[in-house]
């Protein structure tokens, strides 16, 4: 019965499983023929290559997962930094708004004093105005 060797394909897991199956089949007889031993040896070589391909694939998958994990951490860190910056910006805006309110109150007070001074000056002399302000 002819035995076909796995071709390698794109899936090292499938190649490994097929190569192991071929090797077991070739060595199944109690006294394997030289041809059976040759096929088993080829299947072992294919199996070894598939194991190496599988290890490389797994290493690539781990690297990709690590990169994604790192990217997630970086994204979270960036979001946290953005939230902190937004809080600092909000605090600065609130502080500036309070400064502007204080300036507006002071401006209103000065305006009222000017109006008062203007009215007083019309009605009194400078000495009386100074007495009122003191």
What is the structure about, briefly put?
It is built from 3 helices and no strands.
Explain what this protein looks like in three dimensions.
The chain is an all-alpha fold and 134 residues long. 84% of the residues lie in helices and 0% in strands. It is built from three helices and no strands. The protein has helices at 12-26, 34-123, 126-133. The termini are far apart. The mean pLDDT is 83.
Secondary-structure blueprint of this entry?
Blueprint: H1 12-26, H2 34-123, H3 126-133
Helix pairs in contact: 1-2
The rough form would be described as: rod-shaped
Q: Termini separation (Å)?
A: 122 Å
Helix proportion range: over 70%
Total helix count?
3
The sequence of SSEs as H and E is HHH
> What's the overall average pLDDT, rounded?
83
The number of distinct β-strands equals: 0
Which value, in Å, is the CA radius of gyration?
44 Å
Largest sheet: none
Q: Low-confidence parts lasting 5 or more residues at pLDDT below 50?
A: none
* Beta fraction: under 5%
Structural class by sheet pairing and helices: mainly alpha
């Amino acid at each position: 019965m002819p035995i076909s060797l796995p071709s390698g394909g794109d899936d090292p897991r499938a190649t490994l499983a097929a190569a192991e199956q071929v090797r077991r089949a070739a060595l199944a007889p109690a006294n394997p023929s030289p041809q059976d031993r040759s096929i088993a040896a080829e299947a072992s070589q294919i199996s070894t290559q598939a194991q190496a391909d599988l290890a490389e694939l797994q290493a690539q998958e781990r690297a990709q997962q690590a990169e994604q994990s790192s990217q997630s951490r970086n994204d979270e860190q960036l979001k946290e930094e953005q939230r902190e910056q937004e809080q600092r910006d909000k605090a600065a805006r609130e502080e500036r708004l309070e400064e502007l309110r204080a300036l507006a109150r002071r401006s209103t007070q000065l305006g009222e004093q000017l109006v008062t001074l203007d009215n007083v000056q019309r009605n009194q002399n400078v000495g009386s105005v100074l007495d009122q302000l003191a």
